[in-house]
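The instructor's notes for this session suggest beginning with a concrete chain rather than abstract definitions. Hand out the sequence below and ask the class to guess, before any prediction is shown, which regions might be ordered.
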Amino acid sequence: MAAATIVVGPAITPRPLQAAEAFWQDSLAAYALLAGYFGMLLALALYNLLLWFSLRDHNYLTYVLFATSMAVGQLSLNGFGNQFLWPDWPAWGNLAYTIGFAAAGLFGALFTRGFLATRHNLPRLDGAVIGLAALFAVCTLLPLVAPYRLAAILSSLTGVTFFVVAVFAGLRCWRAGQHGARTFLLVWTVLLLGVAVVGLRNLNLLPTTFFSFYAMQMGSALEMLLLSFALADRINGLRREKDAAQGEALATKQQLVGALQRSEASLERRVAERTEDLEGANARLRENERQLQALAHTDTLTGLANRLLFDARLEQSMQQARRNLGQIALLLVDLDHFKSINDRHGHAIGDAVLHCAAERFRAAVREADTVARLGGDECAIVLAAIGSAADVERMADKIVAALREPMRVLNMPLELSCSIGLAMFSGGVLSPAERLRRADQAMYAAKDAGRGCYRMA
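After discussion, reveal the predicted structure:
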């Protein structure tokens, strides 16, 4: 059987003639294979286009454009484009092969730059990738203004150079531990093997078999699949990095919350301690104030009210009597012969006598009444809310009787008596000083009457 020359792409490969039935069977198998190939390219392009619409990651868009450009070049290479897609557009059919693969190189370079992030990870190689992308762009437009042969040669040289740069960039990123770099290297290795097998077949260094004839399609198909897988792996890697970053952020937040809780507990403890100290200090201040107030209104020797408190209580009692239409009584008490006791037995005995007399006065009156020491041995008693003069006289008798009882002061038996002057108040305009003056006159009247008794003013 004579030999015939079959043109596949730019290469001319001799193949033996086949019988019509065998040729028909091979053609059906080839059509089925190529239909599956282009269907896979279309599916991958549409899938990643949907991902781009969802994620807005420019790597998906460049992948879609890369797959589309590769499909255009392969359709022109296998004749499917001229037969089915643009049979009435021969001018484009003459340019589709070079423009398609040049555009695939352009978008492949842009995809490599975005996928490997050469701008940040490999800034020195990034300029080379950009330059090669620009050359691919020139090759894409060159067939429109220059001879086909020139555009094809420039595209091939640029493609070989870009392949070397891409592999070197992938190696560098793989060594740096970048996600997806290993899959990226595998992609270019598979594509290179497919191109190498086709080239060796075209040079008659390999026999023409099903594998060697469709090695480029197989390599590009695996390339598309692996690049899609690399994109998915890149998403997973970014998600893992995001999860790790979120985990670290959560751990940091928990540590911060723990630190804040410990700080808050420490602050609450210090505040509680400080509050307790302040409450103790305030209690001491209140106690000091109470003591100072007591000292300001109390006689230090007898513990009775002093003259300042007596005047205030007398004025207050007189005002209440006016409002309530009641009456009060003022008793002025003087110890009989106290000076002789003080002179004969000394001031210590005299002070003890005063203290004992004060206790007896306090025990004889009611809690609402006021007993005060005005000075020396002279005391005054304000009887509040008195019903009648008889009540006052009974209180005076009680006080006189209480003081007459023998007392023992510092192991010394003593007898004592007192003279009391009474002054009633049931309204009117008399001042406290006038009331005190009248009670004083009544007290001296009791002394003149023999002492140890009382008299009413």
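Then share the key points. The CA atoms of residues 180 and 230 lie 5 Å apart. Residues 3-239 form a domain with the Rhopdopsin 7-helix transmembrane proteins fold (CATH 1.20.1070).
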